[in-house]
Amino acid sequence: MTEMKRPVTIQDVAREAGVSTATVSRVMSNPGIVAATTRAAVEEAIARTGYAVHHSARNLRRQRTGSIVALVPNLANPFFSQILSGVSATLSPRGYHLLIADTQNGPQAGGQLLHYLGHGVADGLILFDGTVERAHLAPGAGDRPLPPMVIACEWMEGLALPNVRVDNAAGARLAVAHLAGLGHRRIGHITGPAGNVLTEARIAGTRAALAQAGLETREAWFFAGDFSLDSGAFAAREWLAMAERPTALFCASDEMAAGFIGAVQAAGVEVPRDVSVVGFDNIEIAAHLTPPLSTVRQQRTTIGVEAARMVLGCIDGTVTGAPELVLPVELIARRSSAAPAA
Amino acid sequence: MTEMKRPVTIQDVAREAGVSTATVSRVMSNPGIVAATTRAAVEEAIARTGYAVHHSARNLRRQRTGSIVALVPNLANPFFSQILSGVSATLSPRGYHLLIADTQNGPQAGGQLLHYLGHGVADGLILFDGTVERAHLAPGAGDRPLPPMVIACEWMEGLALPNVRVDNAAGARLAVAHLAGLGHRRIGHITGPAGNVLTEARIAGTRAALAQAGLETREAWFFAGDFSLDSGAFAAREWLAMAERPTALFCASDEMAAGFIGAVQAAGVEVPRDVSVVGFDNIEIAAHLTPPLSTVRQQRTTIGVEAARMVLGCIDGTVTGAPELVLPVELIARRSSAAPAA
DNA sequence: CTGAAAGCGCTTACAG
DNA sequence: CTGAAAGCGCTTACAG
Questions:
Q1: Nearest to B88 among A89, A105, A261 (CB)
Q2: Which of A281, B187, B216, B268 has the fewest CB neighbours in a 10 Å radius?
Q3: From CA A59, how far away is CA A82, in angstroms rounded?
């Protein structure tokens, strides 16, 4: 009764069915090839014993791991939940496991990456972090062949890796053009973290749209943020202290927009009467804020789905080279942006 | 130049160093046991070849997988990001990989679970979903031994599984007592999804606190929600249409509270002047809403950390039986709750 | 302190 | 259509 039950192996099934392990294996992975009678016997033996294949063993033999690892810069950031959901939904039906690692957790970011680059860990990688050590990724860097990799959301300048991203500059242009179209002449920007490619692209888009509209680009109106709520609130304090304030702000993330709005509202400022705000991402709560937040929609589930498809394509050879998939963005005008006060 | 580099194996290193594979293996996992000279030679060979252990192979041999799987009901729900971050941060330094699966993704919820219960997939499971098929979990159900499991956040009535959760009823009592203490006599509740254990516990706490305060428990003031923003907004429409409205609402999630507040504000209702609102969770944006949201704080990172520790404890035998860790909650009074209008 | 050998649980050419 | 055998890349008693 209390005896430890040893997990049942393919050997047990073979013995039970009176066939070889090869036959059992065939019934599991290529049933058509085995005689109906034999197959039935094996299937019965499988049912009777409750056999389930041992994945580590199968994977070792097949020289694959059945796992894809997603490397995210910060798992605690809810921005990634929908993306990972898309990844998971794509991987799961194709029989792959999703391994998730936080580049902040490992001994050091580089260490994490190197570990997963090692063989026998994952069949492919999705990098959501453009700041990993480039040296590790140079084709033929270490002595071993690297598993297929795609970089999603972010990218690495000058490194030809399969890539899925959103048209960040276009998103910024859309936001700024929207504000200019409403009649704003003094438009500012809360940026993402310094050095980040998304930050640069959105700044570039902002400048381009400002120039296009014939508006001034004043450096003092570029507030340094880091995508977080707190950095939006911090920018709000700078904005409040300003002699000559921009009448509209494009924020590089919805979280910063929410942080900004919360902080200025606490100081008695009315949005959009006193200042118009446009975010980026279209996080779920954006539509439920007061006022509902105008923003640039970025389809996060799609990013995850496409990134997953791309690695799978690299693995099965369907995808070669370093394709770039740039997903479109869309402006969603809600109530946080309006014509400036007369 | 273009030749495919075969990954280097322990054999290559052994040959290179002029020792047996056993010695190489020992240098990697128990260096103290091998002579200094030999060790140096092996280490040099490892460096020269760029050898990295093949994890599948090691794991098969060691009869472990090195992975823990987290089964979440909905990966897209940002509620889990911080929890998973805590799990990852705990697992990573202990050398475990984190496998994440969405119970909605698989063929069916039960199928997913069964798959991960199979051997060779994971060394342990953390269930964040209390609605999985109980039959699969009954000790000794199938014919095979089950891997260690802990259930976190939720739990399963009458099933003795190691468990980490928060004191949900106490949280509800705190929230309702807070509102009663402010002078509210008509207090309502927006519930979680029907049938969920969290929902039940928070309803029970609400009723208990209402009774304790000598207040009426009116069924019409219990709005059916499902934790989502939209369900909060939906409840707001019901509330707005009511002849006799509660003056205060305890919402079983911050998202519902935000959805409720957004919707009533859009209808010209002022919070907290016209209605006080308390949420549950203390999500990051709670402090940045207007008004900042009063809520019951639930330490999500800690839940993840403790759940991970508990499975690891089950695996290494440190933890036995079915311990229950109930984490305390805390009321955070912000500006969305105040004394009712005179 | 080190090596030869067995074996983790599978899969897959290779014969027949 | 099926089986015997080799082998995926490691680790670990067992000898010495």
A1: A105
A2: B268
A3: 29
pLDDT band at A114 (very low <50, low <70, confident <90, very high): confident
Q: Copy the structure tokens of residue B72.
A: 């979440």
Protein-proximal nucleotides of chain D (any atom < 7 Å from a CB): 1-5, 7-13
Q: What is the pTM of this model?
A: 0.93
Looking across all nucleic acid strands, the nucleotide with the smallest C1' to CA distance from residue A60 is D8
CATH number of A66-166+301-327: 3.40.50.2300
CA distances to A300, B184, B189, B247 from B342, rounded to whole Å, are: 47, 10, 22, 11
Per-residue pLDDT tens over the stretch B210-258? 999 999 999 999 999 999 999 999 999 999 999 999 999 999 999 999 9
Give me the residue from B288, B290, B301 closest to A290, CB to CB. B290
Q: Residue A61 CB closer than 7 angstroms to strand D?
A: yes
Let me know if domain B65-166+301-328 sits in CATH 3.20.20.70: no
Instruction: Measure A104 CA to nearest chain B CA, in Å.
Output: 9
* Domain B168-298: assigned CATH number: 3.40.50.2300
Could you tell me the residue ranges of all domains in chain B? 10-53, 65-166+301-328, 168-298
**What CATH number does domain B10-53 carry, 1.10.12.10, 1.10.260.40, 1.10.10.10, 3.40.50.720?**
1.10.260.40
**pLDDT single digits (tens) B265-315:** 999 999 999 999 999 999 999 999 999 999 999 999 999 999 999 999 999
Reply yes or no on whether the pLDDT at A275 is more than 80: yes
Report residue A307 CA to chain centroid gap.
8
The answer to whether the beta carbon of residue A25 comes closer than 7 angstroms to any atom of strand C is: yes
Tell me whether domains B10-53 and B65-166+301-328 share a fold: no
